Each structure stands twice: as C-alpha cells, then as structure tokens.
Amino acid sequence: MKLARYRIGTGEIRLGRVDDATVTEISGVAGIGSSLREILPHLPELTDAIAAAAGDTHALSEVTLLAPVDDPQKYLGIGMNYKEHAEEARQAGIPIPTSQLWFNKQTSCIVGPYADIEKPIVSDALDYEIELAVVIGKRCRHVGAADARSVIAGYMVANDVSVRDWLQKRSPTFTLGKSFDTHGPLGPWLTTDDEIDNPLDLHMQLTVNGEVRQDFRTNDMIYDIYEQIAYLSTVMTLMPGDILATGTPAGIGAPTGNFLRVGDVVRGEIEGLGAIENTVVAEPALGG
C-alpha cells in the first residue's frame, strides 16, 4: 500500500492511504494517529484495518503532501554506489571507495515531495541526485544481508540535493554539503515493501526542465540495499523511520558544471514509487 502524510490547507497533519489519484484518511483507525514513523513497527498487524479504512477521501490535487516519515532519527546516504557514477567521480579526481562510504544528511534538510529547493546564497554549485530511499521498519542490529529485507518498511523517491563546493573542500565528511535546508525532498508517499517485487531492479529517472539527466536502474548499485543494511547495522542500531539514501547513478551536474539554477524544475521518478517534483528558488536574503 501507499501511505502519505498530508494536510488540507493549513489544517492538521493527517495520515492517509493513497489509491490512484485520491487519498483516504486513516488517522481515525485504532492504533493510528498522525505519525507514520510511530506505526511502522506495527504495520503488519494494521494492514487490514488500513486497507478497510473509509475516512474522508480527497483528490491528491486538493491536499499538500508532506515528507512521508515524520521526525526520522537518522538520514544516511551512501556515496559513489553506482558503477558508472563512481567512474565519473574517478575521472573528476575522486578515488573510488574500497568499502561503503556513508555520510549524514541532517534531518533538518527534509522537505515534502513538491516543496521548493533553495539555491544557497553562498554557492552556485547546486546539484541533483535521484536516489531510492529505503525506510527502516523495525529496530534492528547485526542484520545479515539475507535477512535485511525483513526490516524494510518501504521505499520513497529521494533527491539527495548537494552543494558541491561545500562537500570535500569544506566538509570532508560530506555532511555540510548534503545538509542545507530544503535539500532533502522525499516522497511522494511511502510505498510499502510488499508492493515492490524486486527493489534491486527498478527504473529511475531524473529530469531538469523536462531534459533527462539521469536514467538508470537500481541494478547498477555496487552494494545493494541489503548489503547496505547489513553494513550499517554492524555499527549502529537502526530504528523505525530511519532513512537510507542508497546511491545515485551517473548523470549528475558536477562533471560538466551543469548545475541547477533558480527557476529550474527537477523531477525524480522511480518505477512503482511515483514521482517528486521541486522548483529551485533563491534562498531568502539574510534576515529576510
């Protein structure tokens, strides 16, 4: 199923089940409130009730979709995890990692699937990265790759927006260049794991103003999503709602200097998950 967080006008935040072009409120179902993160560990036992929910139904065009997961504890990203992308990075002078290369995106960067992306005052090197986002559904540690799918709640489309000149030079850990406000669009909803036959072979595409910039399948990953979960859970406890951005394919703007400009419309779509679309706007002036 597809689960969304949304509001109507300036009203309260609701949870809903997305069916085609409509969303039906499920917040009134017993055991469900307005937090998607809190119900993730209980999704298996709530599935039937969610499917049968008959709350208020609205056209998606009548609501504002929010980032699907509220208040995630972690938002982690893996660098250079697609074969062709790693090669384009190598040609730009960045060595290909010999192990999984993880960084933090601060959760304050997260915005909804159609929210604006701000071009920072301090940089002209604003870049895009379409990624398959994995959402953890269970508290877990020391998960083997063979069992990793059992801890996945579902998937989203992510744009790992990056400020290139605030990456290695200003922040060797990548964190600053990955964490500017508004640089974490996610959505359009959470598609639960049972809806996706094989997350290791999904078509993904990113366009800027209708021009295709990235067009790959998730089968080009160096470390697949199960290997990623196994690696991370060796180190840390993964919690319900934690978000893993699992890498971007070739075609980013950095190698050619084809960076995003104010007014650009960036659309990312992944097979079976839907699409997010964000307009680049100027960061408000300091004190504005």
Helix content: 10-25%
Order of helices and strands: EEEHHEEEHEEEEEEEHEEEHEEE
Radius of gyration, in angstroms, nearest whole number: 18 Å
Strands, count: 19
Domain Fumarylacetoacetase-like C-terminal: 76-281
Keywords: Hydrolase, Metal-binding
InterPro entries: FAH, Fumarylacetoacetase-like_C, Fumarylacetoacetase_C_sf, Rv2993c-like_N
GO molecular function: hydrolase activity
Report on this structure:
With 288 residues, the protein is of the alpha+beta class. The protein contains 5 helices and 19 strands. 13% of the residues lie in helices and 33% in strands. The strands form 3 sheets. Strands 1, 2, 3, 4, 5, 6, 7, 8, 11, 12, 14 and 17 form a 12-stranded mixed β-sheet that branches. β1 (2-7) and β2 (14-19) form a beta hairpin. The protein is globular and about 55 Å long. The N and C termini lie far apart (41 Å). The model has no long low-confidence stretch (mean pLDDT 95). Residues 1-68 form the Rv2993c-like N-terminal domain.
Furnish the topology, listing elements before pairings:
Layout: E1 2-7, E2 14-19, E3 22-25, H1 36-39, H2 43-52, E4 57-59, E5 64-65, E6 75-79, H3 83-91, E7 101-104, E8 110-111, E9 117-119, E10 126-127, E11 130-136, E12 152-159, E13 162-163, H4 175-178, E14 184-192, E15 203-208, E16 211-217, H5 225-235, E17 243-245, E18 265-270, E19 274-282
